[in-house]
Amino acid sequence: MGNIAVEVRELTKKYGRTTALQDLSFNIERGEIFGLFGPNGAGKSTFLSILATILRPTAGDIIVNGYSVREQPEKVKGEIGYVPQDIALYPMLSGRDNLDFWAGIYGLRGKLKKERIREAVGIVRLEDRIKDRVSRYSGGMKRRLNIAVSLMHHPRILLMDEPTVGVDIQSRGFILDALSALKKEGRTIIFTSHYVDELETICDRIAIMDKGRILATGPADELKRANGADDLETVLLKLSGENAG
Ligand SMILES: Nc1ncnc2c1ncn2[C@@H]1O[C@H](COP(=O)(O)OP(=O)(O)OP(=O)(O)O)[C@@H](O)[C@H]1O
Ligand SMILES: [Mg+2]
Questions:
Q1: What CATH number did the domain enclosing 177 receive?
Q2: 7 in any annotated domain
Q3: For ligand 1, mutation pick of 17, 21, 36, 44 (most atoms within 8 Å of CB)
């Protein structure tokens, strides 16, 4: 195990007759930023939901820091912070009260709770607006608050589903800086994005996904070199063409 944070073992997920994930096996190393890149419907969110123990695998398993999502979902939950694709916040409460609510759910109390809230707010740079109602936040600020929620119990692995979609440049910058800062602390980060520039900039490795399969994994420059392509979109097109043929 050693350096492996996430070990995916012959993972398959079906929704009725739709196969969303087909026999995936790969590893994610401790402390890396790992990106999932692929078209709509590739299975990225399904994969993150299984890792977050929200969905169960149809076959196979994922081992997270030694714990099985199938056999020990409660243990896995303690290792993971999950930022879903859809935003789950209470609009009538302030940012701070939203964090307070979630901190309580994580079992944080008293001084430690205060510290963790302050720390999370600092990482996503929401200090100035934390007392405002969430209904007054921009989309990017809500995203940053969602990320703060996922950080408070100090999970060793962070899952973020399209954390930068639809956010302005400043929020995007704050979010990407937060990911880099969390990596420096030794956390493992797994995220999805349709923006190839940010994937190339901050990911140590990228998995190219299509139709429930992983077509390739590696650092962006290696994926491009191996496929004689200048950008990741071309890599995806080339590999998915081969997969279909
Ligand atoms: N709850 C569900 N019930 C039935 N089918 C589903 C469900 N959720 C996802 N699917 C199907 O599973 C496949 C993978 O979907 P998923 O949401 O994981 O893709 P994605 O890569 O996250 O796409 P996007 O880029 O659009 O977010 C798709 O064919 C989708 O229609
Ligand atoms: Mg998705």
A1: 3.40.50.300
A2: no
A3: 44
* 245: exposed, middle or buried (Cβ count in 10 Å: 0-12, 13-18, 19+): exposed
Boundaries of domain holding 115? 33-55+78-244
| Any domain includes 20 | no
Residues with CB under 6 A from ligand 1: 15, 18, 20, 38, 40-46
Residue 77 has φ and ψ, to the nearest 5°, of -55, -35
Tell me which residues have their CB within 5 A of the ion that is ligand 2. Answer: 44-45
Confidence grade of residue 245 (pLDDT, cut at 50, 70, 90): low
pLDDT tens digits, one per residue of 131-178: 999 999 998 899 999 999 999 989 999 999 999 988 888 889 989 999
Strand order in the sheet with 157-161: 80-83, 157-161, 188-192, 33-37, 205-210, 213-218
pTM exceeds cut of 0.85 = yes
Query: How many angstroms separate the alpha carbon of residue 61 from the centre of ligand 1?
Result: 19
- 60 assigned to some structural domain: no
Asked if pLDDT for residue 243 goes beyond 80, the answer is no
Cα–Cα distance list, 119 to 8, 79, 180 (Å): 32, 19, 15
Please check the confidence at residue 2 and state whether its pLDDT lies above 80. Answer: no
**Does residue 106 belong to any structural domain of this protein?**
yes
Q: How far is the CA of 183 from the centre of ligand 2 (A)?
A: 23
pLDDT attached to residue 171: 87
Residue with the smallest CA separation from ligand 1 atom 31 is 41
Per the structure, how many domains does the chain have?
Answer: 1
